[in-house]
Amino acid sequence: MKDLSGRLNSFVRDLPPSGIREFFDLVIGMDDVISLGVGEPDFSTPWDICDAAIAGMREGITSYTSNAGLMELREAISCDMCERYGVQYSAEKEILTTVGVSEGLDLVMRAVLDPGDEVIVPEPTYVSYMPSVELAGGKAVGVQTREEDEFKLTAEALEACITPCTKALLVGYPNNPTGATMSREELLPIAEVCAKHDLIVFSDEIYSHLTYEGEHACIASLPGMYERTVVFNGFSKAYAMTGWRLGYACGPAPIVDAMNRIHAYTALCAPVSAQLGAIEALRHGEADMRRMVAEYDQRRRLFVQGLNDIGLSCFVPKGAFYTFPKVSQFGLSSKEFSRRLLFEEKVAAVPGTAFGACGEGHIRCTYATSMENLKLALERMAAFVGRLHKERGAETA
Amino acid sequence: MQQILHILAQDGRVAPAEIATRLGRSEADVVEAIAALEEQGMIVSYGALINWEKSGDNKVFAFINVEAVPEHGKGFDAVADYISRFPEVHSLYLMSGAADLQVVVEGVDFREIARFVAEKLAPAPGVRSTSTSFVLKSYKMEGIMLQDKPGDHRLAVSP
Known about the structure:
The complex is a heterodimer.
Chain A: H1 10-13, H2 19-27, E1 34-35, H3 47-58, H4 71-85, E2 95-98, H5 100-112, E3 118-123, H6 129-135, E4 139-144, H7 155-161, E5 166-171, H8 184-196, E6 200-204, E7 229-234, E8 247-250, H9 253-266, H10 272-284, H11 286-309, E9 322-323, H12 334-345, E10 347-348, E11 350-351, E12 363-366, H13 371-396
Parallel strand pairs in A: 1-10, 3-4, 3-5, 5-6, 6-7
Antiparallel strand pairs in A: 2-8, 7-8, 9-12, 11-12
Chain B: H1 2-10, H2 16-23, H3 27-39, H4 52-55, E1 60-68, H5 77-84, E2 89-94, E3 101-107, H6 110-121, E4 127-134, E5 140-141, E6 144-145
Antiparallel strand pairs in B: 1-3, 1-4, 2-3, 5-6
Helix pairs in contact in B: 2-3
């Protein structure tokens, strides 16, 4: 068999799979695992949304749409952005529907970056942010956020990373993996730095609806930000539609147009059935979405309290559906802690290092699983922590 | 209050301490609120929702549309009160539409329900006519789908 690995693009040849993948390989094939490692809702898509998509298929609406997506959908997105965040985007020129936010990020990097351009990315970071920058020939520059700041980005830390090559800032709040949010007041100084250094801002707001305390602040709604920000959102998290693969980007017309040209050559358009489902979600999905958000909120309180009770200290995350408790007190690396928790107690939680080196000392646990599973996971984690304490005691005795 | 009702409607066994944690309130608060809800008759009772078709017990349900004669000054309340006292009556509603009352009756078999309708319900004062439909299979009760729960199709770990 001819080995073609030497013929791969050199960057891709050396591109490692995400740390999530490595952990996934450990979990796969194990029985009775309670997984706190899943980055998607445990709810099924609300039936009305499925029904709208099915009705479309029955009517034979199964063809390509315009590259940017159905005008009806873009108009609904435009209304939604305006009603929720007070930002106005032209359905015709400033909104692009994409195959999830993932495609949108890939497009924007390719549309905006020249080789060597730097994009600042707060860490811990969602696993695909940095690769999406680097696959487009840019350079991802991590800026560490700290637990004592509840993993919020600070203007000082941001400004310290800026070089003449810095072109953009890529942020995602509410945050995966930490659950951090940033309020309007907290974003204002960030916005000032971006304006001062003329940075473009890519803001992944896919978890915006999952904000439990305070209101979600859309960065584009801040003074001076609208003209320099591309906002990414979608249907995966709020409407439990991860497998439908539908997201959208809203931003300045020249950038959206450039993204659309790449999109037209690569994806052509987002799936039409998903677009029909999304229209229904925006028109009538609010009650279902609120019901799911209320349920996540209750689980969040229960789980965070539970973690703190068993000695895994954890700041109270105000968004998304992740907790990022500290595990460094046991003298184990994040990876080792996660590995042992999995093998000894059959609870899967992703090591913090999967999200960048500064995730060391933490694990990511999602509460997008049933209340019953969360309680069971907490029991098992308590047993594990108890055992670790005993081991530590025996070592020091 | 509303949130407590929603939690208990979903699962009547959740302890006040857990409700308190889930809602970010104190346990004493929740205990007091539940006592008030019970006192005011908003929480009527706590029970399990049982799929009798699976339990092997002999149970048959029938939905009976009843046309009734309203009483002066009382409307249908008097006849409804009379009917609802029979232990065979599982639930009873005043309806819009062609029938006035809908009576859900529970029995061990078809014969028992037929006897109840013929001997108790149809001759009851104020009842003008009845129309009985038997339940053949239940799909959803009290907002809960009864077919086997779908498994978790998600990948065990994902970004």
